[in-house]
Amino acid sequence: MKMLWLSLLTLMMPGQTPVAAFPLRSPDLPLHHDAGPPEAEQKFAEEYLQHFYGYKPKSQRQKRTAVRGVDADWTTELCDKVQEMQRFFGLPPTGELTNETLAVMRRPRCGLSDVERFEETIRWKKKTLSYRIAGYNSPISASKVHRVFRAAWRIWSNVAPMKFHKRSRKEADIVISFHNGDHQDGSPFDGKGGILAHAFLPGFGIGGDVHFDADEEWSVNSTGFNLLAVAVHEFGHALGLPHSSDPGAIMYPAYNFAPTHELQLSFRDVKDVQHMYGISPYFASLFSKRPPPRTPDKCDPDLSFDAVTELQQEVLFFKDRFMWRKHPKFEETGITLISSLWPDSVPPYLDAVYENVGGNVIVFFKGHQYWIWTLRQLKLEEGFPRNISDFGFPSRIKSVDAALHFRKDRYTVFFTGHVCWRYNELQKTIGGSPKLIAELWPGIPTPIDAAVFYEGFVHFFKGNVHYKYDPNAKRVVSTGPVNDQLDCKRTEDNEILSERK
Ligand code: 0D3
Ligand code: CA
Ligand code: ZN
Ligand code: ZN
Fold this sequence. Notes:
It contains 10 helices and 25 strands. By secondary structure, it is of the alpha+beta class. The protein has 3 domains: 19-110, PGBD-like superfamily/PGBD (Muramoyl-pentapeptide Carboxypeptidase, domain 1); 128-287, 3-Layer(aba) Sandwich (Collagenase (Catalytic Domain)); 307-486, Hemopexin. It has a 5-stranded mixed sheet, with helices on one face. Strands 12, 13, 14, 15 and 16 form a 5-stranded antiparallel sheet that branches. Strands 17, 18, 19, 20 and 21 form a 5-stranded antiparallel sheet that branches.
């Protein structure tokens, strides 16, 4: 049996260009469509959900139109499916077709349902597979393409007990080729952008074959789509792996490779392929020093944060390459890659982040560098990163631990070790000398990891402990595990914890 990783092309609306990143909601756009989505958008969304989320529209759906033109069925049945899709992509699960949700839906992917799992996984029954590169049709030299594909197979054979051999003449299990547009397999490519490649599940004939879109700007190192990153993903499909909902996985459905980041399988990818094929004899020795990276789990009792900030109505919690987005109206807090919101802009493992509402910018800190992202233009400001000495820190300050912004009073407190600095956003100066954190914020241990102000309280984070601080009473009102902020632990537990203290 052969199964194609169907393309989403049929669901694309004409004239739409897919976007590389989850675009930020423009601040002046309302979050919700009060009047409900326009008919065309709703129809598009329904088709998308039908295809990927098993949504079954009523065949004889009455076109009964409710208040303000919203189809009454929308709220009841589609809402659940929209939420399911939003959870998968780490979006706030509003159940509504926000601009951001539609943008993610419009990004074409190579097909297979995000939720559907095979009854029986389709895999190769032999451990040694042959591959052949047929038709280069690419500006990258043949020898470079060879090297990239060899490296991509190696990434999988390092973890699973498989061998991959290149053949130049005879029939091969896996035929790899580059194609433009329609190439007669029922899934035409879509030109530059959008779908980058597709692969067929293991099987005879076309089974296991991998096709790359020749219209893409492929690269072996910098600009354009990284051929190695896409090859590793497609070879995963050719081995029988479906898409993963783990945003850290190579098998996540959307391309998110940052050229500054080393390409490696995530813990999830490794577990999934080893579940199908077993463990490579080299695995232990290859990965004992540096195991495959795990995507942080919001329910890990030892979770800590790198940085926390408000962003419009949301609170963002940063950890490694990831962040959780907490929306005030929703229980669910989804995880996503930092680079999905700010592609090619900011590094992982940040020190501090804050939104300067007056300036309409977000400021990121790591080591002695900082980056300013403008919410108006949705891009990094020119000339960044720059040195944090711009803020007026003395040269001995090499990094900041946390940044705490007060929207109303237009100032930011920077935390470094045992002291903090008050920075006036209007005058762009640090007023006075640094103050001891122990004096200004009694009860807060130092150095801290992250700080944020919302809902009238300052929230400090250090290690796996969250301190909720009342700035008027100048005291800690409760402590708990940091993930009480991610809807993992309920508040009753936190009270018990703070009593024990
Ligand atoms: C694809 O083209 C995937 C290929 C893929 C996905 C993740 C990592 C490497 C390769 C088809 S199986 N996805 C589309 C994509 O990410 C949606 N396109 C680029 C873009 O929209 N920026
Ligand atoms: Ca394409
Ligand atoms: Zn094809
Ligand atoms: Zn894919």
